[in-house]
Amino acid sequence: MGCRKEFKYLQTALCVLMPASPLLAQCQALFTTVPVPGSIADAGATCITAALVDLGNGVVTDRANHLLWAKEIVYLSVGNVSDFENYCGQLMLGGRTGWYLPDVAQLQTLLPPGTCQAVMDGCGTGYPDYPGFNGITWSSSGVSPESYYCPGYGCPYYGWQVATGLGTDFGSLTYVPLTPPRKRVDAGTYENSASVRCVASGLKLAITPAPVTIPASQTTQGGSVLTRSHLALSLTDYVGPASGVLLALRSDRPNSDKFVGPTSATGTDGSAKADVTTLYQPNVSNIDSTTPLVWTDPKGVVTWLPAKYETPFYTTCYRTDLESDYTGLFLAANKYKWCGTTLAGRSYRQDFMDDVKRQGSGISVQSEVVEYNSKGHCYYFASCPTTSTGACAQAGVTAAVDPTVIPLRASITVDTLGARLAQDTGQGITFYDIDIYNGVGKAVCLAWPNPNLTVTFVSY
Amino acid sequence: MIRQGLFLILLCVAGTVQAMPHGCSALAVEGSDHAEGSDLWIFASDQEPRHVLAAKRPIFAASWSPDRREIAFSVVPTTTDFATEVVIAEVTGRVIGRFKVDRPQSELGLRYIDGIDWREPQALVTLGNQGPNGGYMDVWRLSKDHTRAEWVRRGGFLGGSCVVSPSMQYVACAGLATIYIFDTLAGPAHHNGSVEDQDYFATPISEGQSEFERAVEGNLTWDTKGPTLYAVRLENSKRVLTAIEKNPAAPEGWSTTDREIAGIGSDSRVVSIEVDAHGAVMLSTAQSGGGYDHRAYSLPGAAATASTAGLVARAASPTELRRPTVLKAAVGGKERLFKVLDSYCQSSTSQR
Questions:
Q1: Which end of chain A is more exposed for a tag (fewer CB within 10 A), N or C?
Q2: What is the pTM of this model?
């Protein structure tokens, strides 16, 4: 029997027993289902008689309803329901926190009597005169709206209780005359019982983030790099894999992180997959699940940088041309278009000047740094081989990139070549091309290694 | 047939990827152009994909011969000490010739060939990268049996993602914020045969405009009928179709019109543009950032380059793209993605 249905049935029966009750309106209200936040029905789990397994650490798991129970009932000599809730909330049991006071629907999964006798305390024969030993425990479900259960006391002092023991004495409402005999599932006060059995989520989710990458063929968005971590999700009910659960995830950076998936429920091995992405990489993200009855342990901790580009880069070498490497004809300086004044009496090799356009800079035999301005279509002198960011190109430091893939000024690591700065661009450097500046003269690009290298984004 | 890195975006497409349209065939490689090796395949409508050959290095560029009986392709050199070369093979995969395009990079030569265009039975064009800022277009005369090639002329260019005009006179390249058009017959050749590229047409950049504010989206493409170049650019967050048309009366010899394109979502980016034999302009898009959504659009009225009226992109079936940039096919019992390097359709002239 579904316990939520039984709960409603019970309310109905009580009202039928008192058709002339001056609280008829309240009785009618009771015909509506009392919402029980966090119940197993909310989780989509079937609310059926528990299938209990003693885990041997003070904890009993219910594989049917995905609940974790404290093996022991605890008698508390404390005030009201909030004290019970606080007790469970602070409980460390079975190596975990996250315990809470069960609702009445959850408690009813321990029925019919005998269901929990073999594995839990408080489920057998107790002392009939002392209801606390008949396994009567408090739920978090209050009696609302106010009914005959709580005249003069106020409903906050009454809550649903369930007797999980084998006894037949469920106590009485001694201060309320003409009330019917108490039931196994009934409302009560502390005088009926002050015992609690804490419950917790019976599914454990382990989130294992893969190393962060930049998805294949990704381009920047608003100057930011999109990074992603594949999340391996593994769900158990503390005994074996838990299948058929569609998990929902959240991050402690909800405004920065975005989830893709999981798009399907956990498989027979309890596994599922999802991705988390972000355009904002500072700090780490802590990821857990918001799926009811799922306890995340361990949480997924994603450190966003460094992040490796999934697509390898076609890596080439560039240099500052050295005029002495060339053998072509010398032409007078005035044969070339200069951005400023042409130096009289100078001459430059034609093939050297031609290649300066394509390499970006060159050093003449007079040791001048010659560069080409592709906007003004003219040559000019510089104090050093300059890059797009204005910095002087340095071997071992400078790399030319497509800024729509690697943001300018980013720190990167290029496979075996090591750390570089994205200081330069090139009109021929497009998409997943990266050009490594290696110094002056043709010799510096001799025997360039395998051009397909991986790049890791380190920082902006 | 240039290497257009943006095509890689489509390799991660998980959505719609079209098969070859009826009457069309394509040369394609599996995987990205940064893979260790390449397998060259032929895809034809209504036929099973056919494996042509396996190369140990990535194939950046390939082209059908005009009679579709042979293929020219280039692989990336292993190191800078190896010269780039073009290989001629029969469609059966049998290699019949190969020729070096330039010196190795370590000898100040080209770094790689990223474009091959076999235009006439004995005329083949290559686009080679020489440095971070540009490279050279070379025209080759092939022997009648296609086993050898003789170098005819060279024109320099700046920029990347270049495309050669149908007449082989102009090469257009995309700079960061500029589209260049170089006339490779403009003047006398240097002593090394290279035509001076100093006098070229370049689209203007407004004062203070960022280099990245007029970025070209996808490739450039020439109209098949005449010297008109099309490109899609993003300008001040607006997407425009730029048409650059040869116009002797214009001050710089070329006239440019920009027409705003509506109908394409801001979350998409154009990855390719093509002009069919009838002058119709087609676009394909992918989700911004490298995404998963691939769509096709036509641009009615785009061929009227004298007009400045805005254009409205009309969603089209991907099969209307005569030259898809990516193909998905089941090969060996497994669905695989292929990047198209060249394609042709029986009713039109090949040009990408």
A1: N
A2: 0.82
